Amino acid sequence: MAIQPIRLFGDPVLRATAKPVTVFDKELRTLVRDLTETMLDAPGAGLAAPQLGVSLRVFTYHVDGVTGHLINPDLSLSEDEQEGPEGCLSLPGLRYDTKRAYGVVAKGFNMYGDPVTLEGTQLLARCIQHETDHLDGIIFIDRLDREQRKAALKAIRDTDWGGGPAPVVKASPHSTFGAAR
Ligand SMILES: [Zn+2]
Predict the structure, then answer these.
(1) Of 27, 79, 86, 131, which residue is the catalytic one?
(2) What is this structure's pTM?
(3) HSE value, Cβ hemisphere, 13 Å, CA-based, for 29
């Protein structure tokens, strides 16, 4: 088990569409363990594989004291919506009210390749939607309205990590801080 550096906003891996997992092997289980360790250490409510630089459809969650993971998620969203504060370990320190479906049923697989269904409402539903977005190259500020998104991008430029290379950047060989905006 190892805590890995978390890729920050601006890293192209966060904009890529992650590939489905086809091989459920030891390497995948190591990835799930690394995601879990890194998420709990951060700490965060969820972490997606692209945030560790791995473009595979895998995420972990830690909500209401329950820790788990889901591979190749396929979501069904409730019509009811919720609005509440959301943040991301790839945009440290920033939180914005974000609209999400109130409930989610997520079908996928565990790290052994067994089919599993993860159901949640409120915070767990928000987390599942946020992490699945990461697998499609979507970052939560993309879900904000135009004005809010502009404010978020400005706030990112004003952070100590968003305006140029920050100490964590050395963890990312593909960082394009500044260039990707
Ligand atoms: Zn995130």
Answers:
(1) 131
(2) 0.89
(3) 6
